[in-house]
Design brief:
The structure is a homodimer of 346-residue chains. The first copy, chain A, is of the alpha+beta class. The first copy, chain A, has a single domain, classed as Malate/L-lactate/L-sulpholactate dehydrogenase, NADPH binding domain (Ribosomal Protein S8, Chain: A, domain 1), CATH 3.30.1370.60. Chain A is built from 12 helices and 13 strands. In chain A, the strands form 3 sheets. In chain A, strands 2-3-4-12-5-7-8 form a 7-stranded mixed sheet. In chain A, helix 1 packs across helix 2 and helix 4 runs parallel beside helix 5. Chain A starts with a strand and ends in a 10-residue tail after the last helix. At the A-B interface, strand 4, strand 7, strand 8, helix 8 and strand 12 of A face strand 4, strand 7, strand 8, helix 8 and strand 12 of B.
Chain lengths: 346, 346
C-alpha cells in the first residue's frame, strides 16, 4: 500500500499506542482505537482517528481521565445508569450497550443512561451492536457545547445532538440511521475550514444571522442550523433536554461545557413481538421495493446503513486513506507522549 | 357564537352522536370524539372532526369494526401487545398509553405495541399523556398506504409515518414533538386540494417525479416527499419497518393496505434518573434561553408544543371555527346514519 493508504489493523495499532501514551489501559486503548478506526472504515472520517487531537486536548485540563473505567452505577428492573467516570466514552458506551442488550433480553425492553462520559464516538456503532443482537436500538446524545441555533433563532443554543436508530437488517448490514440534528456535523465544518472548502447552503449562519457557506464563519461567531426546519430543531431540543438532564450532562445552554456526551440508549427485543426470521424476511422484501423506487434509468435509492456497509467493504479490501494533514496532526499528538508513529513516517 | 364557531363541548357532542350512529358504544364514542376535538383545539384541524368522513368510509368495507373494544393481548415484564380488534384507534391507543405508563412506573421503562388498529388520530396526544405522568414518551406509527417517495426515489413507497416525542414541560404545557416524516401531512394536502390551494415547494412531486406545488397532483399519481432529505426519509423507513412489522400492520409497500396504524409506544420514568422537580426546573431555564435565541427585534423561537398550547388556550376561550365545507361533509355522513346535526343547521 502507498504511504497514505493503511490497513485497519495498522491504524488500530498506532491509535492504540497513542492512547496508551495518554494514559489509557491497554484494554481501553484497544477498544477506543477499534471504535475510531471503525468510523474511518464506514466512511465517517470526521469521527475517526483524527479525534485523537481533540481527546489529547482534554488530558491536561482533567476533562478526560484516561485511566478511568466505566461502571454500572445502578441497575433496576428495565433501567440502568452507567457512570463513565469521565473516562473514554467508547468504553462506557460499550458497557451501556451490553447492559441494554442483556436487560432487554430479560425484560423485553430497556433504557440505559450514560453519565459522566466524554465523546462516545459515532452513535451508529452502538445501535448497530444492538441490531446485531436481534433488537431495535435507539440512541440519543446531547453533545454539549452550544454551536447550533434553534429554528426561528440566530443564537447558538444547542449541540449537534445526534439521533440514531437501528433494526436488524439483511444482506450483511443492519438498518442504521445515524445523523446529526444539525444540517452538517460540526466535525465536518471544522474539516472543511481546514481544507478551505465551502459548506452547503442552508447549514450555517454567520455571527449576524445571515446565511453563509463559508466554513470559517462557524469559528467567527456564527452558528450551525438544524436539519428539516422546525422538525429537526425540535428533535435537537428534545435530545438536549432529555439526554442532557437524565444523564446529568445538562443541556448545552445550561452547562456551558463542551465535552461531555449525555447519552440515552434504548433497546427492544424484537422476538417478543415477531420471529426474527419473519422480521428479516419482510425487511428484505421492503428493501427490494425501496431499491425499485428510483426514477427509470436513475440511481437507485439506498436503505439506511447501506452506503456505510458498502464503504466498509471497500475500505476493508482497499485500505483506508489518511490525508497527510491528518497524519501530521496525529504525529504531533503522539510526540507529546513520546510515542513514535513510523506508519506515518515519524 | 356565530354559526361557524363552536365550543369543544358542542363539537364533542355532535361527533359522539355520529360515532354512535356508526355503531360505537357510547363510551367509545365519547373517547373518540374527545380525541378528535382535541386535535381541533390544538390547531391540527386535519386530524380533527373532519376524520368522521374517512372513518365512515371504513364501516361498509368492514375495515372499521365500530363495536370492537381493545384488549391486552399479552403483557410480560416491560413489554405488552394491545389488540385493537380493528376498532377505534383512539380507544386502543388510550389503553396502550395506560399500560405504557403503569408498566414504566413498575419497570422504569416500557414498550407497548398496538396491533389491528385503525387510525389512531394525533400521535402527539398520546405522548402528551405520558409526559403528564412525569415520563418521557416516544411514539411511532406506520400509517399504511404508500403515498411518500423515499429520498432518491420517485415512486410511492412509504406512509406519512409520524414520529412523536415528549418530556414533561413547564408553564402549563409539555414539550411535545409530533410530526409527519413527509414534508406535509397527507391530510393537509387533501384539504389544500379541496380548497384549491397550493402546497409549499419541496413537498410534492407529480407522477413523473417532477417537483410540484399543485395539491391535486397527489391524487393524480404523484407522491409526497420526506422532510429533511435522507434523514427524514431514513426515519420514515425505520418507522415503516419497525412499527409496521412489530405490530403486524406491515410496511405500506408490503401490505398494500391503507388504513391500519401500526404503532409502538415507549415510556421512560424520569424519576428513576433525576427528580421531576429538578427536570422541570432545568427545562424551564432551557426555555428561557431558547426564547432569547431569536434575532434582535425579531420573533422569538418556540419550544416544541408551545404553539399548540397557545392555540388550545385561544380556542378554549374563543371557540373552534369549522368551515361550512367541513360542516357539510359531516352532515352528509351523519345523514347516512339517520343522525341530525342541528349545530350545523341540519
Amino acid at each position: 500500500m502507498s504511504n497514505d493508504i493503511f490497513t485497519p489493523e495498522a491504524l488500530e495499532g498506532l491509535t492504540s499506542r497513542v492512547l496508551i501514551g495518554m494514559g489509557a489501559s491497554p484494554e481501553s486503548a484497544r477498544a477506543v482505537a477499534k471504535s475510531l478506526v471503525l468510523s474511518n472504515l464506514v466512511g465517517h472520517d470526521s469521527h475517526g482517528i483524527i479525534r485523537l487531537v481533540e481527546y489529547s486536548s482534554w488530558v491536561p485540563t482533567g476533562q478526560l481521565v484516561t485511566g478511568a473505567l466505566p461502571k454500572i452505577a445502578w441497575k433496576k428492573e428495565a433501567t440502568a445508569l452507567i457512570d463513565g467516570g469521565w473516562g473514554w466514552g467508547q468504553t462506557a458506551s460499550a458497557l451501556a450497550v451490553d447492559i441494554a442488550i442483556s436487560t432487554a433480553r430479560e425484560m423485553g425492553t430497556s433504557t440505559v443512561v450514560l453519565s459522566r462520559t466524554n465523546h462516545i464516538g459515532r452513535l451508529g456503532e452502538y445501535v448497530d451492536s444492538i441490531a446485531d443482537a436481534g433488537m431495535m436500538g435507539i440512541a440519543i446524545c446531547n453533545t454539549g457545547g452550544e454551536v447550533v441555533a434553534p429554528f426561528g433563532g440566530i443564537k447558538r443554543l444547542l449541540g449537534t445532538n445526534p439521533f440514531s436508530w437501528s433494526v436488524p437488517g439483511v444482506d450483511g448490514y443492519n438498518l442504521i440511521l445515524d445523523f446529526s440534528t444539525a444540517v452538517v456535523a460540526a466535525g465536518k465544518v471544522v474539516l472543511a475550514a481546514m481544507n478551505d472548502k465551502e459548506i452547503e447552503p442552508g447549514a450555517l449562519i454567520d455571527k449576524n444571522g445571515a446565511p453563509s457557506t463559508r466554513a470559517q464563519d462557524l469559528d467567527d461567531g456564527g452558528a450551525l442550523l438544524t436539519f428539516g426546519g422546525h422538525k429537526g430543531s425540535g428533535m435537537s431540543v428534545l435530545i438536549d433536554v432529555a439526554a442532557g438532564i437524565l444523564s446529568g450532562n445538562m443541556p448545552a445552554a445550561i452547562s456551558k461545557r463542551g465535552n461531555g456526551n449525555g447519552t440515552v440508549i434504548m433497546a427492544v427485543d424484537i422476538s417478543r413481538f415477531v420471529g426474527l426470521d419473519v422480521f428479516r424476511s419482510i425487511t428484505e422484501q421492503f428493501a427490494v421495493a425501496l431499491h425499485d423506487a428510483g426514477a427509470p434509468g436513475g440511481a437507485r435509492p439506498f436503505m439506511p446503513g447501506e452506503i456505510e456497509a458498502r464503504t466498509k467493504a471497500k475500505r476493508l479490501s482497499e485500505g483506508i486513506h489518511v490525508s497527510r494533514g491528518v497524519q501530521q496532526n496525529i504525529v504531533e499528538v503522539a510526540t507529546q507522549y513520546g510515542v513514535k508513529i513510523p506508519e506515518f513516517g515519524a
